[in-house]
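General statements about sequence and structure are easier to judge against a single worked case. For one protein, we set the task of working out the structure tokens from the amino acid sequence alone. This step matters because it turns folding into a mapping between discrete strings. The amino acid sequence and the backbone structure tokens for this protein are reproduced below.
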Amino acid sequence: MKKILALTLTSAVLSTSSAFADSWIYGGIGVGQAFVEDRNANTLHLSQKGPIYEAYVGTGILPFFGVEGGYIQHGKVTLINNVKEKIYSTYVALRPSLNFGPVQVFAKGGLHSWKQGDSMSRDLMYGIGVEYRVRETPISFGCQYMEYTFGKNTIMSNLALTTSFNIF
């Protein structure tokens, strides 16, 4: 009896995976919190305040691989001279993923172009996440952890809750 129940539950969960495979085009928004690690405290950031906001759009080239681009407002940072500035990034990333029924586990890795005051540069970004696709809808909810490098000494980690919409 337990085996039949386990098989029934497993097939019910896995039967949704074809209906919720990666979409050709998707978009989403997220909100979260950033944490700053400055490896050389004499240079760039002292602290970060306020929430982060992000918006993204992507394409699922294959059911297990996609490309994503987005915009992130990392919140306000306080510099050494007590000046408060906002940091913004735009990014392009590769996004491999695995689907387990309505649950998708993914990784992201790519480049982000960031601006802080008059400074601009390009650095690496990477992270992991998980999404849950709501049954029979194009909507999914998730959580992701991302790290953005800013020069050689500073890493900003973001933990965000996301909502995605499959467009096609």
